[in-house]
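Sanity check. The docking grid for zinc ion depends on where the pocket ends up, so I'm generating a full predicted complex first rather than guessing from homology. Inputs follow.
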Amino acid sequence: MRTDRLALAGLLFAPAQLEGAERSAAAMAPHVRTDDATVKWLVTSGAEYSPTFKRLVSDLDGTDVVAYVTVDATLPRSLGGKIAFVTSAAGLRYLLITVFPDDDPKRAIALLGHELAHAREVAADSAIVDVRSMMDAYLTGLIRMRSGKPIADTWNARAVQAQIAEELRSRHSMMKLDFDNVRRAIPQPGPEKGADRPPR
Ligand SMILES: [Zn+2]
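Predicted complex below; grid placement will be based on this.
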């Protein structure tokens, strides 16, 4: 199974500050958010066919953590996905999850679930309030080095990923057809699809 790594880099992206009525609206809205149509499909299908994925999403809704999910075709295939702290605003902690645009729905949902498992870990640790404290929290876990930068991962997130993949196994053919249709209907941003992918 391809695994992701937890990236400990800072980010330039930050949502606007929220106040007053906007604040409660922000807390009430779903805590897993995306503007990407393929990710929306992954979240919807993941929640529909994987009880573990569904629980992740509903658990996050009850926390002060909001996870934005974006797709990045330039992410190394071996990395798969990453998560980073963005900011705290109006009582909410914002994380940014970035995933590779995998054309295999089972793998893509399981990987997204892996990242959401990290989001739930952050939600359970109130000491994580910025990039530095998130790094500190994860550096006590499994540490590896990639290109000279520290990266970390947890057995919990890997177990969640494996569990989701197992739950989706019997649905794979049906999901693949559906996902291919969704992807075909959406103009793919960035470079030509698959243009810079290494051979598999
Ligand atoms: Zn991870």
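Relevant for the grid: The pocket of zinc ion is lined by residues 4, 6, 114, 118, 153, 157 (CB under 6 Å).
Also worth noting: The radius of gyration is 16 Å.
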